[in-house]
């Protein structure tokens, strides 16, 4: 079966501390915990899946004792959410309280949004613009 616009997308990343990362993405940004699991066998990871009910994507964070790769984010590792309007002050405050750090993501993104580093250093951009693949 070929991929389509309905194909679900999973973005997976390692995390040093799943509870801290979950706080940023769930409590700070407002994503729902879709699944949380603990490793129950060799080579398995603890994980948390976050997203929005009914969305065609989710963010999966893996960690725990069996984690074999530390987070290695670069300035180009961006998770961009197109909000189609201003970023609410309460959202900014919530992300900062949940462990996010305001950062620059370069001139383009600084002009069109607000960027945060999550507790593992990966960047979230809240973009004021809209996006359509249509």
How are the elements arranged and paired?
Blueprint: E1 9-14, H1 18-28, E2 32-37, E3 46-51, E4 57-63, E5 78-82, H2 89-97, E6 101-103, H3 107-112, E7 113-117, E8 123-127
Parallel strand pairs: 1-4, 5-8
Antiparallel strand pairs: 2-3, 3-4, 6-7, 7-8
Helix pairs in contact: 1-2
Question: How would you summarize what this structure contains?
Answer:
This protein is of the alpha/beta class and 134 residues long. The chain has 3 helices and 8 strands, in the order E-H-E-E-E-E-H-E-H-E-E.
The largest sheet, given as strand count, sense and whether it forms a barrel, is: 4 strands, mixed
Low-confidence stretches: none
State the helicity in percent bands. Answer: 10-25%
The total count of helices amounts to 3
Report, as a whole number of angstroms, the end-to-end distance.
Answer: 22 Å
Strand content: 25-35%
Q: What is the ordering of alpha helices and beta strands? A: EHEEEEHEHEE
What structural class should be given to the helix and strand makeup?
alpha/beta
Shape: globular
In spatial order, strands of the major sheet run 1-4-3-2
Radius of gyration: 15 Å
Description:
- The chain is an alpha/beta fold.
- The strands form 2 sheets. The protein has a 4-stranded mixed β-sheet with strand order 1-4-3-2, with helices on one face. A 4-stranded mixed β-sheet has the order 5-8-7-6.
- A hairpin with a 5-residue loop joins strand 3 and strand 4.
- The protein is globular, with a radius of gyration of 15 Å.
- The mean pLDDT is 93.
């Amino acid at each position: 079966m070929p991929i389509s616009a309905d194909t679900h997308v999973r973005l997976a990343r390692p995390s040093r501390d799943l509870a801290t990362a979950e706080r940023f993405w769930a409590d700070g940004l407002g994503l729902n915990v879709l699944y949380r699991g603990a490793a129950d066998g060799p080579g398995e990871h603890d994980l948390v899946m976050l997203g929005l009910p009914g969305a065609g994507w989710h963010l999966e964070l893996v960690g725990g004792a069996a984690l074999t790769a530390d987070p290695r984010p670069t300035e180009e590792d961006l998770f961009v959410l197109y909000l189609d309007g201003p970023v609410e002050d309460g959202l900014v405050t919530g992300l900062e309280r949940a462990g996010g750090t305001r950062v620059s993501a370069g001139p383009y993104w600084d002009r069109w949004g607000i960027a945060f580093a999550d507790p593992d250093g990966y960047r979230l951009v809240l973009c004021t613009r809209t996006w359509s693949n249509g």
